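FIELD: query
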Amino acid sequence: MSEKELAKKIVELAGGIENIVSVRHCATRLRIVVSDKEKIEEKLIEDLDKVKGSFFNSGQYQIILGTGLVNRVYDEVIKITGEPEAAGNGEKKETVVYGNRFQRAVRMFSDVFVPIIPVLVATGLFMGLRGLLTQEAILSVFGLTPESIPQSLLTYTQILTDTAFAFLPALVCWSTFRNFGGSPVIGIVLGLM
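FIELD: result
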């Protein structure tokens, strides 16, 4: 099943375009706010090819699709629903804001930081591995000492581990601009400044 077919089926089983208020996504889940929760055919959605599960949380119906796939399906759902305009009648869809100010602030921050979490996790894991492999106790198992590690290898691994953190402001600005409708390229430039 292609992403386009999957998106079409999700929209249909979520009660159709008229039932969908808004659509967003995070790193792995498609997040749909609907007018009538009862119109969603949860079991059929979960049985779709490539869907790993679904649940309700904070007024959103969240469909677990996985990293990468969720971005492509989201793009197709937006083409189908025509968000922010409702299909067929040209009226603007009403944006529904759930929760109190604190909950909205947390959701806003999560929308900004969730896309960059995989980069930070991967870099952090690599930093831990690098730290472990440069420990004298580990090196002694192989008959090596910290001085026997080539400086070029240390520099190379340091570049790999420090880049994401050095450019963290650029990543945060890119994600912020992408989430709030600005140009992500301008966000990157401002973050680098």
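FIELD: remark
The chain has two domains: 3-98, 113-192.
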